[in-house]
């Protein structure tokens, strides 16, 4: 594997790239193939492919147990899960969310003709800043969606206090927080509901999928009806709904990957600390820290580039891309700067100074089971050479 010791070794300066194949931030973590094929055999024998099959039910039970929550309602994907949870909670008018999140959080509202109102974030956590949320409340506000970004919990207690004070519904986008905890309690137990994503790039995947976790019996039953067109029985539609079901083949992938989850987390943790060791002495460079008192999935390695760094964030990203290391500027430039929101709210950036600042500082680096310690070493060598000015 290529070693980078001086600037002449960088691909951006004409040297061959470090990797022949592109190294993505979110290469899928995949469990045992033989075990997956055994589940496939079961599916072929039962001929039960969808419609709340036995593997989906088994996966829901195991995920609920893993998060110490009463209900896991599996869905076709995380976005459908967000949309169904939003509709089941009967949100309307305006809902406050961070702009510093994946665009699906905003789209899930806009798609249902609900106005996403962007609040600012805390620079230390990258999650919603409670006082900014409070300032955005109007008579049209019906709810708040907090985002547990990078697996770090949003300010759960503070947001719940605001929701209770103003009679608002509170839910969470927990796409980054599978298997994590907050103050010793597992994610999935906060607000009215919490939404997971099982997309291929996530820590835990089902090829494609998602789920809603909740302790609310009535809400869980409503969402189960909604994901299956509102059918309460044969030829009996008792609620408006859509097709949000998870298939058996996706559940099979999920069951296999759930068995492999502990080893994936340990691998991510090892990568996280290797990145820390490789980058900790560089000026203006820091790695976003996990709270070691909590359960963490170490899904994201988030590097911040501040004013003390002698080169810009974009200079580092350009150098990494030249080596086929596809580091990402998540969540640049923020939802408020993307279509259609930049047109709908052209002055939103004036109310989101921290969001603007953080989105210009962050680089997310590759990790997961496809990234070895040797690969992490090469990536840190690239960053060190670009930042440290080796000649």
Short note summarizing the structure:
By secondary structure, the protein is of the alpha/beta class. The chain contains 13 helices and 16 strands.
What characteristics describe this protein?
single chain; 391 residues; alpha/beta; 7-stranded mixed β-sheet; 3-stranded antiparallel β-sheet; 13 helices; globular
Uncertain ranges: none
The largest sheet has its strands arranged as 2-10-9-6-5-3-4
- Global Rg: 22 Å
Beginning-to-end CA distance, first to last residue: 21 Å
Helix content: 25-40%
**Number of continuous helical runs:** 13
Description of the structure:
This protein has 391 residues and is an alpha/beta fold. The protein contains 13 helices and 16 strands. The chain has helices at 33-46, 54-66, 78-88, 103-110, 130-136, 156-165, 217-226, 248-259, 261-279, 313-322, 341-344, 353-359, 373-388; strands spanning 23-24, 71-75, 94-98, 115-119, 141-147, 169-173, 181-182, 185-186, 194-197, 210-214, 231-233, 236-237, 285-287, 301-305, 325-326, 362-365. The protein has a 7-stranded mixed sheet with strand order 2-10-9-6-5-3-4, with helices on both faces. Strands 13-14-16 form a 3-stranded antiparallel sheet, covered by helices on one side. Strands 1-15 form a two-stranded parallel ribbon. Helix 1 (33-46) runs antiparallel to helix 8 and helix 2 runs parallel beside helix 8. The protein is globular. It starts with 22 loop residues before the first strand and ends with a helix.
């Amino acid at each position: 594997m290529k070693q980078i010791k001086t600037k002449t070794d960088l691909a951006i300066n004409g040297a061959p790239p470090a990797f022949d194949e592109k190294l993505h931030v979110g290469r899928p973590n995949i469990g045992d193939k033989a075990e997956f094929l055994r589940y496939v055999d079961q599916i072929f024998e039962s001929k039960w492919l969808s419609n709340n099959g036995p593997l989906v039910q088994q996966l829901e039970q195991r995920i609920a147990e893993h998060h110490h929550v009463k209900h896991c309602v599996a869905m076709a994907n995380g976005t459908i899960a967000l949309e169904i949870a939003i509709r089941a909670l009967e949100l309307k008018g305006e809902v406050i969310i961070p702009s510093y999140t994946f665009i699906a959080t905003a789209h899930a509202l806009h798609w249902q003709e609900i106005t996403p109102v962007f609040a600012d974030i805390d620079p230390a956590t990258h999650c919603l800043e409670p006082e900014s949320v409070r300032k955005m409340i109007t008579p049209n506000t019906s709810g708040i969606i907090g985002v547990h970004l990078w697996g770090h919990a949003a300010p759960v207690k503070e947001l719940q206090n605001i929701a209770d004070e103003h009679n608002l519904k509170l839910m969470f986008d927990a796409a980054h927080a599978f298997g994590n905890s907050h103050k010793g309690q597992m994610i999935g137990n906060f607000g009215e509901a919490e939404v997971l994503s099982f997309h291929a790039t996530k820590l835990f995947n089902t090829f494609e999928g998602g789920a809603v976790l909740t302790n609310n019996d009535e809400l869980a039953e409503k969402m189960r009806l909604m994901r299956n067109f509102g059918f309460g029985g044969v030829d009996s539609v008792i609620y408006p709904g859509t097709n949000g079901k998870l298939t058996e083949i996706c559940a099979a992938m999920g069951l296999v990957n759930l068995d492999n989850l502990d080893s994936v987390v340990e691998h991510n943790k090892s990568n996280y600390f290797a990145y820390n060791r490789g980058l900790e002495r560089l000026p203006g460079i820091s790695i976003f820290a996990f709270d070691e008192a909590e359960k963490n999935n170490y899904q994201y390695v988030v590097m911040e580039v501040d004013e003390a760094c002698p080169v810009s964030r974009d200079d580092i990203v350009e150098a990494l891309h030249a080596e086929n290391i596809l580091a990402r500027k998540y969540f640049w430039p923020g939802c408020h700067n993307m279509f259609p929101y930049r047109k709908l709210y052209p002055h939103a950036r004036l109310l989101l100074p921290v969001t603007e600042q953080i989105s210009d500082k962050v680089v997310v680096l590759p990790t997961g089971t496809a990234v070895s310690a040797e690969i992490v070493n090469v990536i840190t060598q690239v960053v060190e050479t670009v930042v440290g000015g080796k000649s």
